[in-house]
Design goal:
CATH class of one domain: Mainly Beta
Largest sheet: 14 strands, antiparallel
Strand content: 15-25%
Structural class: alpha+beta
Distance between the termini: 28 Å
Helix content: 40-55%
Radius of gyration: 23 Å
Number of strands: 14
CATH architecture of one domain: Sandwich
Length: 499
């Protein structure tokens, strides 16, 4: 059967699926799941251009940076000054990495584990031990560890040594203790005072001079809320703020940096905004910027500030909706989104937020209607067009999806989400060269978004490199730990690899 016939069959199959199955994920990921079963991985995408060569200082590196958000620096062995970390940089035993405030980073280890580093984290890479056991020293901060299969890792902290034989855990170091929570797998926590073996669902704490002890955590995954990916829902253009040296000029410059993917300068640009400003637009923008790096607690402070100024400010309710969706609070998300539309029926942001809440509750028809209304209300809203393209993909209408994606990119080519959805729209039509270009741009613009990483993995699989392709899909899974769909697709890759 030819490719065109395969695609026709794909469209028919997609339309016949139940609404519940279709609504379980975004349009891009939904379509990919069924493309894998119908077309096979080898038909999904052609070869992407190879990534930029990483900076290397030794023959055998032990870690590679696969995502950088904000201010992340490294101190290599033999050097005296910290240097900015770039995407694809590699590191050797003895090298250090530190992640500053309002920043995140992802590092893949040579044993195929992936570490997600929280803000204010400093760690050192050590020599790989026997049986490909990676060794790191966590001096301060927090790390989320993810490996799709059992992987060996040893983490040394000031209060405990954790020997990991598992797939997912969280560890943090504070001034007087180390906290450890195991989601899947097994961890041996020990120090001079004693030892403790933890399995999935258990947590422990170790203080100076004391043996590690179990600690009950009602919602242990709340500790990694900072590691989740919060899709953008607020579309703000620089020209909405006046140019100049006052606070509006600062915000305008910040938005310009954000659209270039430079979160460090985006935050720096608004650091000196006077504290007496009470314009809701400032707090909403800053909250959306904080969500981009996973700082949900800080974002909620700004959101509450806006609600105290104007309880009916619709963009704020839109941000609350996306937080609830990501944290799987579906009823709350729908209630808040409906209120956002009620208080401002002409807000495209409110309609986009509502589409996420509706999709989370398996109402794809409602989500599409919300997005069609959003682009009608604000024809220049690139984010709304990108979301509409996703929904057209989920319905299998590939032509409409491509047109909507192209419209989104024409409005805002420097937005990662517009490039991502364009990549998948091209991918479903087997226009692989164009898909490649869009995915590459999207990764640069938002290194924390798992979707373009998934596309890159499929590209490598297409060229026959299942191992490297699988690694990129593993990275995609680490970028959004709660995304069951990405993990499910990773399972399809492992099936192809016969793991």
């Amino acid at each position: 059967m030819g490719i065109i016939q395969h695609l026709k069959k794909l469209v028919t199959t997609t339309r016949e699926l139940s609404k519940r199955r279709r609504a379980m994920t975004s349009g891009c990921l939904y379509l990919l799941r069924f493309m894998g079963s119908i077309l096979g991985l080898s038909f999904l995408i052609t070869l992407l251009a190879p990534p930029a060569s990483p900076a290397e200082t030794c023959e055998k590196w032990v870690a590679k940076v696969v995502s950088v958000q904000g201010t992340v620096e490294s101190l290599r062995v033999g050097e005296t000054e910290w240097q900015p970390v770039q995407l694809n940089d590699t590191y050797c035993p003895g090298d250090q990495i530190r992640v500053q405030e309002t920043s995140r980073a992802d590092v893949t280890l040579i044993n195929q584990s992936v570490l997600r580093l929280n803000e204010n984290t400093t760690m050192t890479f050590e020599e790989v031990k026997e049986k490909r056991t990676s060794l790191i020293e966590l001096l301060k901060g927090a790390i989320h560890f993810f490996s799709p299969g059992p992987s060996n890792l040893e983490v040394n902290t000031p209060f405990i040594t954790a020997g990991i034989r598992g797939t997912e855990f969280f560890i943090s170091v504070e001034e007087d203790k180390t906290f450890l929570s195991v989601f899947e797998g097994k961890v041996l926590a020990e120090n001079k005072a004693g030892s403790l073996t933890l399995v999935g669902g258990q947590s422990a704490v170790a203080e100076a001079g004391k043996a590690p002890v179990l600690r009950v955590e009602v919602r242990p995954r709340d500790a990694v809320r900072w590691a989740l990916y919060y899709p953008p829902v607020l579309y703000i253009r620089p020209d909405e703020f006046q140019a100049g040296t006052d606070w509006q000029g600062m915000v305008r410059k910040s938005i310009e940096f954000y659209l270039k993917g430079d979160l460090q300068k985006a935050f720096e640009s608004i650091e000196k905004v006077p504290r007496d400003i009470r314009d809701p637009r400032l707090f909403v923008y800053r909250a959306s910027l904080l969500l981009a790096v996973g700082r949900v607690d800080e974002a909620e402070v700004d959101i509450e500030q806006v609600l105290s100024l104007d309880p009916h400010y619709s963009p704020t309710l839109g941000l609350q909706t996306i937080i609830a969706v990501v944290q799987n609070e579906k009823d709350k998300a729908l209630k808040v989104a409906q209120r956002a539309v009620e208080v401002d029926p002409n807000s495209a942001t409110a309609r986009v937020a509502l589409s996420y809440a509706q999709q989370a509750r398996f109402d794809l028809e409602g989500a599409r209607a919300s997005l069609e209304k959003a682009v009608e209300l604000e024809p220049e809203n690139a984010l709304a067009w990108a979301r509409l393209a996703e929904l057209w993909l989920s319905f299998g209408d590939l032509d409409k999806a491509l047109k909507a994606a192209q419209k989104a990119v024409s409005l805002e080519p420097n937005l990662s989400r517009t490039q991502t959805v364009l990549g998948y729209a091209y991918l479903t039509q087997v226009k692989t060269k164009q898909a490649k270009e869009a995915f590459e741009k999207a990764i640069v613009l938002d290194q924390a978004d798992p979707l373009p990483r998934l596309g890159l993995g499929l590209a490598k699989i297409r060229e026959g490199d299942l191992d490297e392709g699988g690694r990129d899909i593993e990275i995609a899974a680490s970028l959004d730990p709660n995304n069951s769909v990405v993990r499910s697709y990773l399972g399809k890759t492992y099936f192809e690899e016969k793991r």
